[in-house]
Amino acid sequence: MLFNKVHHIAIICTDYEVSKLFYTDVLGLTIIREVYREERYSYKLDLALNREYIIELFSFPAPGKRPSRPEAAGLRHLAFEVNDLDAVVEMLTAKEVASEPIRVDEFTGKRFTFIADPDLLPIEFYEK
């Protein structure tokens, strides 16, 4: 099997402070890191459950309402942790599934790419 587990869930909220309070105070998730990305007017809040990173909470100015867009309100993408990103891309290509060019996470230095499911939900493959 090429996939290990779900790596994280990314959510774009429409009211950052309300959502931050909900995920931390109501659900009890702990904050790993909170970053304000000034160039994007966007917060990125990394949250953990039982010390395991599970959610990225994003804010963007006036997010769109279409759930298939990468920066629309709602589920942003589903991410799978993989051991070998090149092998995953090769497998996807063999099955005629197009992937985006491989990128590098600016915070972790790890490589990742995205595909779209049949309903255009973004799915990420994130190298361990």
TrEMBL record:
Keywords: Metal-binding. The keyword Metal-binding applies. One of its GO terms (molecular function) is metal ion binding. Pfam families: Glyoxalase. CDD domains: VOC_Bs_YwkD_like. InterPro entries: Fosfomycin_Res_Enzymes, Glyas_Bleomycin-R_OHBP_Dase, Glyas_Fos-R_dOase_dom, VOC_core, YwkD-like_dom. SUPFAM superfamilies: Glyoxalase/Bleomycin resistance protein/Dihydroxybiphenyl dioxygenase. Residues 5-128 form the VOC domain. Gene3D superfamilies: 2,3-Dihydroxybiphenyl 1,2-Dioxygenase, domain 1 (3.10.180.10). This is Glyoxylase I family protein. It comes from Pedobacter metabolipauper.
